[in-house]
Write a structure and sequence with these properties.
The protein is α/β, with parallel strands linked by helices. It has a single domain, classed as Arginase, Chain A. 32% of the residues lie in helices and 16% in strands. It has ten helices and eight strands. An eight-stranded parallel beta sheet has the order 2-1-3-8-7-4-5-6, sandwiched between helices. Helix 6 links the parallel strand 5 and strand 6. Helix 3 packs parallel to helix 4.
């Protein structure tokens, strides 16, 4: 499909009902050429980094289904992403469910092509290890900052002996590889029991700003937004949202749930407060449909994707001087 001279639009639910048509992210066209879009919506159906409850490999398909509930304009910011940018579903990154290291290479290669084409990726996982090969694909020329929503820091070193690659290690590896600037990284919603008293030593020692859920509750949303904006600054920034950052009362379908998290409204409010930052991509990960037959976790995932999509489109528009 040639989208060079037009902005693709979602299938109109007033003409084709939401349960009809082929499911794609936001009911947008499916294209294969990243050069044809400004923002590439991508699924990464892989959970080879999961250490306990698997199932996030099924997340992208269910998020696509639930994204049919999204409409065209954000009701608070009035951002109309499809008027500001060419957005389409680029399908799924190639994965290997058997060979972890091969999967990481395949995912990296897919995102490198997106980056080389000048498009920004917005992805649905998949477990949180997918963010590492995404960074390898888009951040080799300069480290990026990150606003990270999660119950867990994901900066552990090794699991099960000498295994350096799990969904609990991606951001330690990203810092070590020079892909992620820890001093421009803020982690929001961290909570839950830990393996040892020094579990957070790498995150805090490297300069990451860790906002534990207890601080979030104490200082309030507006101060959390202000701190996230301060840490991110003006440099290129990526948003990574693990749905276990939200309380499992709202997102039970995830691999490592932790009680005492954000509400869905709190999560949306913080995301909306990031408008105007220099954003270069994002992901929503750890939606595991087998643990939520209601589909509500996938609906949360799709809604968060739309929230981030609006931020990315607005950021792109600002850079273009619109």
């Amino acid at each position: 499909m040639n989208l060079q001279n037009s902005n693709p639009q979602p299938v109109d639910a007033a003409i084709v009902p939401r349960f009809g048509a082929i499911p794609t992210f936001m009911r947008l066209p499916y294209v294969t050429d990243p050069a044809a879009v400004d923002i590439a919506l991508v699924g990464v159906p892989w959970d080879g980094g999961t250490t306990n409850r698997a199932g996030a490999r099924h997340g992208p398909r269910e998020i696509r289904n639930m994204s049919s509930f999204m409409r065209k304009v954000h009701h608070v910011s009035r951002i109309a992403p499809y008027e500001l940018a060419r957005v389409a579903d680029l399908g799924d990154a190639p994965v290997n469910p058997i060979d972890l290291m091969d999967a990481l290479k395949r995912i990296e290669g897919f995102y490198a092509k997106i980056h080389e084409a000048g498009a920004m990726p917005l992805s649905a996982g998949g477990d949180h290890l997918i963010t590492l090969p995404i960074f390898r694909g888009i951040a080799k020329d300069r480290p990026v900052g990150m606003i990270h929503f999660d119950a867990h820091s994901d900066t552990n070193d090794r699991y099960f002996g000498d295994n350096k690659y799990t969904h609990g290690t991606p951001f330690r590896r990203a810092v070590e590889e020079g892909l992620l600037d820890p001093k421009r990284t803020v982690q929001i919603g961290i909570r839950g029991s830990i393996y040892s008293a020094d579990d957070m030593a790498f995150a805090e020692g490297s300069g990451m700003r860790v906002i534990y859920m207890e601080e979030f509750a104490k200082v309030g949303i507006e101060k959390v937004i202000a701190e996230a904006r301060r840490v991110a600054g003006d440099g290129p920034t990526y948003i990574s949202f693990d749905v276990d950052g939200i309380d499992p009362a709202f997102t039970p379908g995830t691999g490592t749930p932790e009680i005492g998290g954000m509400t869905t409204l709190e999560a949306q409010t913080v995301l909306r407060g990031l408008q105007g930052l220099n954003l270069i991509g994002g992901d929503v990960v750890e939606v595991s449909p087998p643990f939520d037959p209601s589909g509500n976790t996938a609906l949360v995932g799709a809604t968060l994707m739309f929230e981030i999509l609006c931020l990315l489109a607005d950021s792109l528009s600002r850079r273009r001087g619109r």
